[in-house]
């Protein structure tokens, strides 16, 4: 039986592991931390529970796939419920409860003008067409060599994506009110890229939200990481926790021999790195720089990295009845806010997102209390390295005051009984994410589709990659897809 080693029990690693183990391979995952999930992590303290990373479930069918494809019913592993309206968005013009119900959306857009609804429907038709094209020709397809992309059919589909304008410009063509434009554009931040500079194809994110809805996993996101781990173990796989891989051993620069862990060589027939791609190339791949193919150390350092996040996890000894599951407060000057993030400036008036799972699930906090998660998009460590204790303290105090005032959470500061903070340093140190970029390599045009690192190394014949920094990209469902595509690449070769 062929043996496969996987570096990392993140969502990408776990998904690849299920597909391979289910197809008769002998799979072992080595994970540096003590539990599964990677950035889909959890804090459990003083009666509170916090999902620390992803919170918004989109494309639920993709979440189900590793279970249905391995022959079981996903409902025996995790439960989904739809959330609608799915997001309260607060802009300079007040609060909007974003809904994926067309009747509600029509009311919202027609309140501005019927022409705005017409523009919205035109925008939806256009972006839905592009989504179908992207899904069938780019997202669910892996690339190995130039022939996979530079052929007439694929180039024609790439041309039809017409992705050269920014997300925001594409929306402006159809919808004229700035407030509505903001409501349809902030979602590119979910993958760590500005709507003002990110390619227009990423408008598929708000489209997916509106067309397919937003969902919640009962008990929280970490239940999904546990579900993947459970399925993999049931199939006979093995996860070795607290095991940091220090080298991918490639004796003749062509073929991986195994992984170095605690000074011991763990041999295998193939290796999948779910560890962040740039870190894997610079820190783990034990070959001379000139043999690394396209991704030499210099090249990796010069690549564009996504935003990072500053996160507060607040255990609060009260409940705020008016605070729904997901709330976004957009900066008064959203464009300036995003520009500050891109240039490494700690925003004076940041946008922020608050997740309040206690609103619909009582497993997160003791009775009549709540577990709040506050996310502020900030620059990665390449743009801003200064997260000294003083900066962290001042910024967290400022954010708590803002949340209290702008969401009307009376007495929030006095009600905090537990607090934990994650900064870009946490992503770098805990998960080995290059430059602490929360969403991996930035999905610019130059780093998307064929131009994103592939799922298989170009020169080493048994080294593969799954995860947010490689094809097709970041976000839980896309990383699940990456895990599946990578497993299929391995099976194609072995
Ligand atoms: C704050 C935040 C909010 C988000 N919100 C959402 C959301 O609402 N919805 C959504 O869909 N997506 C969201 N995302 C994105 C999503 O969480 C990620 O894209 C996805 O979880 C990344 O999975 P991964 O498998 O690529 O990597 P990771 O989760 O980084 O997993 C990599 C694993 O490899 C391990 N590892 C690294 N180096 C080594 C080594 N040397 N040896 C052994 N193990 C190693 C790490 O410990 C980690 O467990 C969010 C991300 C963040 C950070």
Compile the SSE list and pairings.
Layout: E1 3-7, H1 11-22, E2 26-30, E3 42-45, E4 48-51, H2 60-68, E5 80-83, E6 87-91, E7 94-98, H3 102-110, H4 114-139, H5 152-161, H6 167-172, H7 178-183, H8 204-212, E8 214-217, H9 222-234, E9 238-240, E10 245-249, E11 258-261, E12 264-267, E13 270-273, H10 277-284, E14 285-286, H11 297-302, E15 308-316, E16 326-329, H12 334-342, E17 352-355, E18 370-378, H13 389-406, H14 412-415, E19 416-422, H15 424-431, E20 463-465, H16 476-493
Parallel strand pairs: 1-2, 1-13, 2-9, 6-16, 10-14, 13-20
Antiparallel strand pairs: 3-4, 5-8, 6-7, 10-11, 11-12, 15-18, 15-19, 16-17, 17-18
The structure holds flavin-adenine dinucleotide (FAD).
